[in-house]
Amino acid sequence: MREAIILFSHGSLLCGAGQPLSALAERLRAAQTRNEPQHASLVEIGYLNYSKPSFAEAFDRCVQAGATRITVAPYFLVAGKFVQVDLPREIEKQRARHPQVEVQVADAMRFHPLLADALLSCAERAAPPAAWRDILKTAPQFCRANPQCPLFGSDKCPATANDEG
Amino acid sequence: MNDERIEAGQQRSTPQDQQPQDQPCQNALLVMVHGSPRPESNDDMFAVVEVVRARGVYPIVEVGFMECNEPAIPDAIERCVGQGARRVVAVPYFLHTGNHVADDLPTLLEQAQARHPHVEFMMGDFLGRDSALDEIILDRVAQVRRPMQPSSLTTSD
After folding, report:
1. What are B23-66's pLDDT values in tens digits?
2. What is the per-residue DSSP string for A46-111?
3. How far is B25 from chain A (nearest CA, A)?
């Protein structure tokens, strides 16, 4: 029996938008291996829209890696429509494809005292105006030349910046 | 070149404003939230903000919404300034680096800075970048996992 966790997220058109979640997944993998070397859970990210891997792809990866039980953890602050309507629909599709796999769904983050710690830590890392748009500067590092990215066609997009001189 | 930094929560003077004040320089925390057509979706966020308020790090704590709910972010900034804030630290209550965090929120803060040149505006990291989320996710997973091998599922708090 092998456990897996799928971090279920919405997805974004902006290139590089998934970096914080990828980093979180990487930290969880490291923690799992450290704490439970014999029973470490697989950790995958599955997106509902726009970004890759899709939820179905994440599910397949887990199954191919031998997962027999998957816990889906919504990477959402609020359990709104995406979590309450879209996620169950996605899960039903995967249950039909992989009936042998047990699936559990965790709650969204909602209220947790650690969110207060997170908020205060984020405030401690506050930056002055010159740094407020740094995300737009780092997004090009993760450019996928996606025509739907808000930067596509602008001089900030490496894929299109040189097209129009 | 590094001048002395005084830790948050203590008085500090802003270089722009030399006029004597009989009240200490007030730090405000502004929580910038997306907003929802279902106002009850904000209940959990408000509960988190209450915890932050109770910690007492910031004498002024306000919530401002981008869409759907009141107060709008510019109005929440006015509330901070109206309570005497000389420094506003604005934190995006967002998990993702979408356009809101990358562009829309900086624009709102720049407009506020132009309206209040004597107030120091700072923008915090967005919530999704904080590693405290790791443990929240693991807690949520632990809450639904039925135990299979008692030894393999240890959660510490």
Report:
1. 567 999 999 999 999 999 999 999 999 999 999 999 999 999 99
2. EESSSSSSBHHHHHHHHHHTT-SEEEEEE--SS--HIIIIIHHHHHHHHHHH-TTSEEEEPPPS-S
3. 17
